[in-house]
Amino acid sequence: MTRKTVRIAMNGVTGRMGHRQHLVRSILALREQGGLDLGDGTVLWPEPVLVGRREHALRALAEQHGLEHFSTDLDAVLADPAVDIYFDAQVTAAREDALKKAIAAGKHLYTEKPTATGLDAALGLARLARDAGVKHGVVQDKLFLPGLLKLKRLIDGGFFGRVLSVRGEFGYWVFEGDWQPAQRPSWNYRAEDGGGIVVDMFPHWEYVLHELFGRVRTVQALTATHIPRRWDEHDTPYDATADDAAYGVFELDGGVIAQINSSWAVRVHRDELVEFQVDGTEGSAVAGLRGCRVQHRGATPKPVWNPDLPATHSFRDQWQEVPDNQGPDGYDNGFKAQWELFLKHVYADAPYRWDLLAGARGVQLAELGLKSSAEGRRLDVPEIEL
C-alpha cells in the first residue's frame, strides 16, 4: 500500500457543523480508520489545515485533536502548493469570495450549501470552476441518511407504483435566547447576515426532491418570522429580520406534488426532527433521518370516518419497519460517506454529480421561494445550465 497525504484547507471548522460533522465525524474519522483506500494500492491520508478568523479558537481546536496546521491567513494557505483541496463551512455571506479565491488558486472545491447568496453568483462560481478545470462538490448530506437511503431503495424497487405526493415536516423549537441559550447562532435570524430558514433549508429540499422524485418545476411558498425578537450569544436582544418558518408546495416532474413545512418555531410531535411521507398507488412510506416504515396496498386498512366513536386501534401499529439490510457495520455517517465519494472523485476520477451546478439549483429554489412568498404567487422554476 502507498500512502498519499492530502492536505485539505478547512475554513469554518470552529462552527457547529464544520467542527462536528466535517472535521470530527468525517476527516478525523477517516484518519482513525487508517485513511481512505482507493482500491488501487493507494490510501489517502487527509491532513486538515484549519482556517478561520480567530487564532485562539483554531489553536485550541488543533490542540484538542492533535493537529499541526492552522492559520488565519486564507490567502497564504491557498498559495501553498501542498494544499490540494479547499473546503468551506463559513457563514453564507463569506463563502462566495473565499470560493473564488480557491478557484483562482487552482484548488479543488468542496463546500457547504448554499454556495452563494443568489443564483447569478452561484452559477458564476460553477462557471469559474469549470473554466479553471478544478473538481468541485457541494454537501448534500440528506441523501446519505439511513432513512432516505431506505426510501431510495423502495423507489428503485418500484414499491410505490406511481408516486402521488410527498409530505415533509422539518423543524424544532429554537429557544429565543433569553431564559435558555439558543441552539442555533444568531446570524441565522438576521437576513442581512444571510440568515433565514428558506436560504438554509430549501437547498436541501431541492436536492432531496430532485434526486428521489424528479426536478422541481414550480414553487409556491409562504414565509413567516414567528419569533420577532431574540437574544444573541452575548445575551443582547436583537430584532429577527429573517424568516424562521416556511410553508412550501412544489410541483415535480411527472405531476408529483410535494408539500414541506420548515420551522424553527415548532415543537416536535413526531419520531424524528424531519420526516417525509410518500404516497403512491401501490404503497406508502414514512422516512426520517434513520428509520423508514411502509404500508403496502395489500395491507392497507379501510378506515371509516366516525367522530362519534373512539379509535380502537393504533394507526402507527399498522405500518412495517424497513430493515437496515446494510451489512454488519450498518450505515456510515452521511457527511463522511459523501467526503469519501468526493475524495475518490478527485484522486481516482470516480463519478460525482453533486457539483456546483447542483448547488446552484438549491440557491435558485431558495431565491424563488422567497420571491413567491413576497409576491403571493406560484412561480415556475426554470431549468438552469452552464
Topology as H/E string?
A: EHEEHEHEHEHEHEHEEEEEEEEEHHE
| Share of helix, binned | 25-40%
Number of continuous helical runs: 9
Q: Proportion of β residues?
A: 25-35%
Distance between the termini: 40 Å
The major sheet is characterized as: 9 strands, mixed
Quick one: how many beta strands?
A: 18
Radius of gyration over C-alpha positions, nearest whole angstrom: 22 Å
Sequence of strands across the biggest β-sheet: 17-16-15-14-8-13-12-9-18
Question: Structural class of the secondary elements?
Answer: alpha/beta
3D shape:
globular
Q: Segments where pLDDT lies below 50 for 5+ residues?
A: none
Description:
With 386 residues, the protein is α/β, with parallel strands linked by helices. Helix content is 32%, strand content 25%. It contains nine helices and 18 strands. It has helices at residues 16-32, 55-65, 74-79, 92-104, 119-132, 146-156, 197-212, 334-348, 356-375, and strands at 2-11, 36-37, 42-51, 69-71, 83-88, 108-111, 136-138, 163-171, 216-224, 229-231, 237-239, 245-252, 257-263, 274-280, 283-287, 292-296, 320-321, 379-380. The strands form three sheets. Strands 17-16-15-14-8-13-12-9-18 form a nine-stranded mixed β-sheet. Strands 1, 2, 3, 4, 5, 6 and 7 form a seven-stranded mixed β-sheet that branches. A hairpin with a 4-residue loop joins strand 15 and strand 16 (292-296). Helix 4 (92-104) runs parallel beside helix 5, helix 5 packs antiparallel against helix 9 (356-375) and helix 7 (197-212) packs across helix 9. The radius of gyration is 22 Å and the shape is globular. The two termini are 40 Å apart. 42% of the residues are buried. The mean pLDDT is 96.
